[in-house]
Amino acid sequence: MTFIMTQISSMRVVSIGLALALTVAANANFGQKPKVHFLNYSKTHGKIWTVQAQIPQVSHVQSGKQLNRIIYNFEVKSCLEWISESGKIPNTWTHMINTFGRKVRSIYAYPRLVSYVSGVYTDTGGAHPGYFFDGLTCELIDRQWKPISTGQFFKKGYPWQQELNKVLLPIFKNKGATFLWDGSVKRIPKEDMGNVVVTPTGLRFYVNPYDIGPWAQGIFVTNVPYAALKGLDPSGPLKGILPPSTLK
């Protein structure tokens, strides 16, 4: 398996110094090398609301138009939902700056699987801006792309959430996650397990601020090698991606 990694500079709207890794992976079994480019979506409402999104688009894959439509709709829906929610802010806040930005943190594109996580930046004029993650993974099934969940990487019936917690909790505790140390949080939220990127060597998980530690600790990210994960389905979405050593 070969892959190309490119670093892309961050946009101003996401200005808290978070790095982005863009990776396009080609698998010899599929015989294609997908390419990723980005569209910039921007929408304003009056003088104070600004909505921006970096939307990945993938070429050199089967049914690429359909895949890109899924990704585009996923990103724009989030932007439109923010505009709708912003309209519920009390009138006393209407003089504040209201900014919403989505920027891809990491994306891996394979001929039959595309996986990425966006960082979402919000600023409504509070004590500090907000930040969270939002991930999407799509698999090509019978020439149709479909969004899939983290649980589909594992064999049917496997208690993947329970087993993932056994792997992730010690990792994040070693990274100093305060809420895991003081016992106020005992498991990784299911929503965070959906913020996953499929890399050539393992699964990369992103945990939102406040979920396992205070805002001051920032975000938590970890790469878990495939060899450390039990119950993966070699005939599922990870087929052709899992290293041969994990198939023994």
Description:
19% of the residues lie in helices and 36% in strands. The model is unreliable at 1-22 and 26-30 (pLDDT under 50). The protein has helices spanning 64-86, 160-174, 178-181, 190-193, and strands at 2-7, 21-26, 35-45, 49-59, 98-110, 113-123, 130-141, 144-148, 196-198, 202-207, 220-225. The chain is flat. The protein has 248 residues and is α+β, with helices and mostly antiparallel strands. The chain has four helices and eleven strands, in the order E-E-E-E-H-E-E-E-E-H-H-H-E-E-E. The longest helix has 23 residues, at 64-86. The chain has two domains: 1-148, 2-Layer Sandwich (Heat Shock Protein 90); 153-231, Actin, Chain A, domain 4. The strands form two sheets. Strands 1, 2, 3, 4, 5, 6, 7 and 8 form an eight-stranded mixed β-sheet that branches. A three-stranded antiparallel β-sheet has the order 9-10-11, with helices on one face.
In short:
With 248 residues, the protein is an alpha+beta fold.
CATH top level of the largest domain? Answer: Alpha Beta
- How many beta-strand segments? 11
**What do the pLDDT scores average to?**
82
Main sheet overview: 8 strands, mixed
CATH architecture label of the largest domain? 2-Layer Sandwich
Q: Which percent range describes the beta-strand content? A: 35-45%
User: Portion of residues in helices?
Assistant: 10-25%
Q: Any idea what the CATH superfamily of the largest domain is called? A: Fervidobacterium nodosum Rt17-B1 like
Succession of helices and strands: EEEEHEEEEHHHEEE
Overall body shape:
flat
How many separate domains?
A: 2
Give the low-pLDDT segments: 1-22, 26-30
